[in-house]
Write a structure and sequence with these properties.
Low-confidence stretches: none
Number of domains: 2
Largest sheet: 3 strands, antiparallel
Radius of gyration: 19 Å
Distance between the termini: 65 Å
Length: 140
């Protein structure tokens, strides 16, 4: 039997094997690459394999849109917060996900990360977002 290359294809496309994503121009349907190919999840028990759409992704006619990572209920996540006294201008903070307004706000703002390392890597982008919002609010 030949080697299965789906894990390598997933990595090449910037997703993990089994990670849910969307496809640009295809609405909010959930897809994922698994060892058998590109799967469209109809429900927990029914899967449709879409070889044509996989080929369109591989040839650049379709584009994968990663879904934002979110923790499970009671799971840990990291955020970036401004801190005026820190030389870097920010701190990372860990929180427990309860699905409350604060947690949902962090997800909506793109400030919810699975690790401290991921939060630190995203800090410049998050701080720029905060600065843009601050400017917008002060202009009104």
């Amino acid at each position: 039997m030949a080697k299965n290359h789906m894990a390598e294809i997933a990595k090449m496309l910037g997703v993990e094997l089994g990670e849910e994503f969307e496809i640009k121009r295809k609405g909010s349907a959930k897809y994922k690459l698994i060892e058998d190919g590109l799967a469209y999840m109809v429900d927990k028990e029914q899967t449709i394999f879409l070889d044509i759409i996989l080929m369109r992704i591989l040839t650049g006619y379709e584009e994968i849109v990663r879904r934002p990572w979110r923790p499970g209920m009671g799971g840990m996540y990291w955020t970036v917060l401004r801190k005026r006294t820190d030389d870097e201008g920010y701190i990372t903070d860990s929180r427990v996900y309860f699905g409350n307004e604060y947690d949902l706000g962090m997800i909506a703002m793109g400030n919810c990360f699975p690790t401290r390392y991921a939060a630190k890597a995203a800090a410049p982008e998050v701080l720029k977002f905060y600065e843009d919002v601050r400017r917008m609010v002060e202009e009104e």
